[in-house]
Write a structure and sequence with these properties.
It is built from five helices and no strands. It has about 260 residues and is an all-alpha fold. The chain has a domain of about 160 residues: Orthogonal Bundle (Helix Hairpins). This is PspA/IM30 family protein. Keywords: Coiled coil. InterPro entries: PspA_VIPP1.
Length: about 260
Amino acid sequence: MGLFDRLSRVVRANVNDLVSKAEDPEKVLEQAVIDMQEDLVQLRQAVARAIATQKRTEQQYNKNQRESGTWQQRAQLALSKGDENLAREALTRKKSFGDTASTLKIQLDQQTNNVETLRRNLIALESKIAEAKTKKDMLKARANAAKAQKQLQETIGGIDTGSAMGAFDRMEDKVMQLEAESESAAELGGIGLEQQFAQLESSSGVDDELEAMKAQLAGGSVNQEALPAAEPSETKSPDSGSAIDAELEELRSQLKDS
């Protein structure tokens, strides 16, 4: 292998690699659809030209057929009038138009087949373009999704997740420590208040009891000093007992009446 062949292959390989890297799927698909639509336009024009040619050939064929029939009738007329030379000339004209019509018929059949083939190709190309547009949209959506996924992965890969999660763990430990300190302070504060109120309640109870005892002692000494000397008891008279009995009887009668 010569040096120039090797250099040519290296250049082609590098160019192909650059082209492959420069290809954007969305742009390439869009251009492919545009190219297919241009082919469709050209094919439609070709079909239109073929149909026009077919129609002209068909008109010429029909015209020659009519001329052939006309000269056939003229030949018969000349022969019926006894003019054989004129009849022969008419038959010559008839043959010329007949031969032309036969040639045009062959061309017309070929053109009809060509038009049918072009029409089938046109329908097939239109179907392919519709399929290509649908596939293009699907591939564009897949390409966009792949680009977004790639960008997301690159973003995630650029983030130092280890240090970030470590910061979260440290902050969680700090928050838990603060919560524990807050709960401890609340418990200590509650115990101090309860003890203070318990002391107040116990001291106030002792004080109250002490004051009550003082009041009893003070009241007892005053009552003893205020009481008069005891008098000898008198013997109850019979009249006082009867009066009490009478009052009891009255009360019983009131209870019965009620």
